[in-house]
Structure formats: structure tokens, C-alpha cells
Amino acid sequence: MEVILKEDIKGLGYRNDLVNVRPGYGNNFLIPRGLAIVATSSAKKVLAENIKQAAHKAEKLKKDALEIAEKIKAVSVEISAKVGETGKIFGAVTSLQVSDALSKKGITVDRKRIVFKGDVKEVGEHTALVDLHKEVKVELKFTVVGE
Question: Which of 106, 115, 117, 110 lies closest to 71 in space, CA to CA?
Fold first, then answer.
């Protein structure tokens, strides 16, 4: 079943993407929640017109995302956490903590756009992927230190 996404859906696609999904997922989840519409020929024509009109706006968003990506590459983030005797931290570092640490450096990133490569449960250097735009993704290196 072909649908047009109305919002960004992690793992599926971005807004205004034309994607193939299973009929049950489309009819029972995406469409009733307003996350997608059925990709009829008229809906595809409307989508093409909307994309053409939004091209200028999208270019500005991409430019802004690239500027933020350059700032993220240049900054070093340090997150403090309580540490046990073995060197492991209590709990795990979350995307909210990383987002807050970036905010303190003057970079605003939504916590939902930060994805870790594995669990962050130890002191040391770690890497997270920040998905700023459809075409702009940047790796953020951060350090977890013990309190």
C-alpha cells in the first residue's frame, strides 16, 4: 500500500515522502492517527505542487541544519553522572541529558533527534548521531565523567 507521510516517522520516512507500507499498518495505524494519507493520483498531484512551492523553504531549513551541524562538530560536550565503584554509572545517559548539555553550549537540538550507538552506561568517550534534517546527519562525540 502506498501512502504519503504527513509527519516525520522514525524508521519509516520524512514528511511528504511516498512510502510503501503493509495495508494493516497503513489502514489501522498511520491513516487513523493522521500520520499519512492514501497515495491516490490526485493526492500525488497535490503533493508535487506542495513540494514545488516548499522548495525554497526547504533549502533554508537545510542551510540552517548545516550551520547547526558545523557548530556540533566544533563543540565538546561533557556530561556528569554518578558513578559506582566499578566505573559504571547509575542508570544510563539519555538523549535529554545530551540535549541539555548542547543547550548550555548555545545549540538547540530536539532530544528526539539524538540517537545513541548502543547504551551509554560507562564513563568515557561515546558517540551519538544527531538527525538534523533529511539530508543532514552529524556525529556528536561526548564524554561521560563521574561526579
Answer: 106
